[in-house]
Amino acid sequence: MQAVEKFGVVFVITKMNYLYIYEISKAVLIYRQKLSDQLIFVATKLLNETGLVCVNKAGQVLSVCIDEQNFVPFIMNFAKHIPDNTGFAFTLAQRFSLNGADELFVTQFNKLLAMGDYVNAAKVAKDAPGTLLRN
After folding, report:
1. What structural domains and CATH numbers belong to the chain?
2. What is the pLDDT at residue 135?
3. Alpha-carbon distance 56 to 40, whole Å?
4. Four-CA torsion 100, 48, 61, 34, nearest 10 degrees
5. Cystine design at 100: which of 9, 30, 72, 119 (Cβ 3.0–4.6 Å)?
6. Are 124 and 117 a contacting pair, CB within 8 Å?
7. What average pLDDT score do residues 12-25 get?
8. Which residues are CB-neighbours of 55 under 8 A, at least 6 positions away?
9. Largest CA distance in the chain
10. Where do runs of H (alpha helix) occur along the chain?
11. What integer is the mean pLDDT of 24-45?
């Protein structure tokens, strides 16, 4: 098990060589996949903290990484098993300043601005990644 703080997830590799990626705060399963037919006996976090590298019994080195540009869109488009996956992706993007939720930030900001809720609109602008809403 390896935690990747950059994305707020934990990688779990089971005895049967399955990879599970969970969001840390709510233990939401984001992704699962069988990695290898051979026993994986060692795994460690990558130095750039985007994933992990592991070695199986056959000597294969397997690298599992999260693509920062596609992580949030993946959750919005393919993680249909997560209730309110769009809201979940928006929360992750806010918390960890992730790219890929630009439309969500702009829509939420404009909605709050139109309602006259300037305090929460300012919070959305503050949490938006990069300079998307701050200029």
Report:
1. 1-66 (2.40.10.480), 75-135 (1.25.40.30)
2. 59
3. 4
4. -40
5. 72
6. no
7. 92
8. 40, 41, 42, 43, 61, 62
9. 61
10. 71-78, 85-96, 102-115, 118-127
11. 92
